[in-house]
Specification:
The chain is α/β, with parallel strands linked by helices. The chain has eight helices and eight strands, in the order E-H-E-H-E-H-E-H-E-H-E-H-H-E-E-H. Helix 3 packs parallel to helix 4 and helix 4 runs parallel beside helix 5. The relative contact order is 0.16.
Length: 303
């Protein structure tokens, strides 16, 4: 219970609000959808594998009869797929109230996406960034739109060079899955701060915050971890994972609060952990690198 962190302190309803959640076929994403439909939200489940998504949706409906859920395909490894998802969403809804960029990967083997980017960078940062930018007009139409970007504690190990903040040029380091993950999650935190400034400058009602779910067991994220490759290591590790890592329910609580709490309706540009605001590293506060990162991201995405 101690390691699980704080439970969302509010229990208010968000009746008929339209919430988009990415990465919903299992783990935190599925539980997050459950928690939101319990609060009367209409949840759009965006996931890469429709077969798993269908099973997750059916499981939620069995547990919560009458749950309002839509399922749409979204593969963040393809910018074309992100744009198709947005176009389909626009035909179904006039606005969205909340966007939760939950999907992500960790310890993934070295791989290039169809768009030519390293997999962690695109799935954890570039894809969600593009999705957010394309959905800003729909969020503006809501009474008070909210964007929640899921980062991780691992961002603190991330490194970023102002000459090449995306790690795609001559400055790019030798690939290591752990470093690629940390870099992508650092980019999420830094870009969240810059987007907040731009929204405030435009006098937008949209808020944007980043958060960490903590170390969560019971998800597919560790399937590429070196620990999971050896049976003996698994046997030694699993009891400690159960004891010291959060359940998906516990990992979802910070996102639930950010999506539903009226007390946070005007809080923006912050980083949350265990349902509370917390400070970020000095590198994550570096405005020069963050501005360069944001600019280079717009160029990379041709926005």
């Amino acid at each position: 219970m101690y390691m699980g962190g704080q439970v969302c302190p509010n229990s208010n309803s968000i009746r008929e609000q339209v919430v988009v959640v990415t990465g919903t076929s299992g783990g935190i994403g599925k539980v997050l959808c459950q928690e939101l439909v319990r609060r009367s939200a209409h949840v759009i489940m965006a996931c890469r594998c429709l077969e798993k998504g269908v099973r997750a949706r059916q499981s939620i409906i069995r547990e919560i009869p009458g749950a309002s859920l839509e399922l749409l395909p979204l593969d963040l490894r393809s910018f074309d797929c992100v744009r198709r998802f947005v176009r389909e969403l626009q035909t179904r809804h006039t606005h969205i109230d909340v966007l939760i960029n939950n999907a992500g990967i960790i310890f993934h083997p070295e791989e290039r996406t169809t768009d030519g980017f390293e997999a962690h960078l695109q799935c954890n940062y570039l894809g969600p960034f593009l999705l957010t930018q394309l959905l800003l007009p729909m969020l503006e139409k809501a009474p008070q739109g909210r964007i929640i970007n899921v980062s991780a504690h691992g961002y603190t190990a991330g490194k970023m060079n102002i000459e090449d903040p995306l790690n795609i040029g001559a400055w790019a380091p030798t690939f290591h899955a752990r470093d690629a993950f940390a870099h992508s999650k650092l980019a999420v935190v830094m870009a969240t701060r810059i987007l907040d400034r731009k929204l405030k400058a435009d006098k937008s009602r949209i808020t944007v915050n980043a958060c960490s779910p903590g170390l969560v067991r019971g998800t597919d994220h560790l399937r590429y971890s070196p620990i999971m490759k050896a049976l003996f290591a698994k046997a030694l590790t699993y009891p400690w994972m159960w004891l010291f890592m959060k359940s998906p329910y516990q990992g979802s609580q910070t996102m639930v609060r950010l999506a539903t709490d009226p007390a946070l309706s005007e809080i923006s540009g912050e980083f949350f952990n265990d349902c509370e605001r917390t400070d970020i590293t000095e590198l994550a506060k570096d405005d020069l690198i963050a501005e360069k990162l944001y600019k280079e991201t717009l160029i990379a995405l041709k926005l």
